[in-house]
Amino acid sequence: MPKIYEYLGIILFFYSNEHEPIHIHGKFQGAESKAEIHMLNGRIHKIVVKDKGAGLESKKRKEFEEFVHAYADDIVNKWVDYFVKKKHISPQLITQKVKNVRIIGN
9 pLDDT exceeds 90? Predict the structure, then answer.
């Protein structure tokens, strides 16, 4: 389970045996949601956030969704590096809140 980011206390990670579509999980205090990044013609087409069980509480879910939209290209690159190129991924600690996020169609 490679940890990819830590953002405002949310741990963002891939499970080691993932499947498409490209997606990343966010966990905070035992609650978990995931964001699927759907591609069309090699570009990000939409991002869909889904909850596992009860999912992240609303404030953390919104922070998770904003982060994924802001870092979507980087998440896709890390997915390819980890699952396709079999590269090690070092986690990043992001301490500042993302700003001016463009939400890609749900």
Answer: yes
Find out whether 37 and 44 touch, Cβ atoms under 8 Å. Answer: yes
Over the chain, what is the mean pLDDT?
93
CB 16 within 8 A of CB 5: no
Mean of the pLDDT values across residues 33-45? 95
Instruction: Calculate the CA 55 to chain-centre distance.
Output: 14
Distances (CA, A) of 103 to 19, 55, 66: 24, 20, 8
Choose among 23, 44, 45: nearest CA to 34: 23
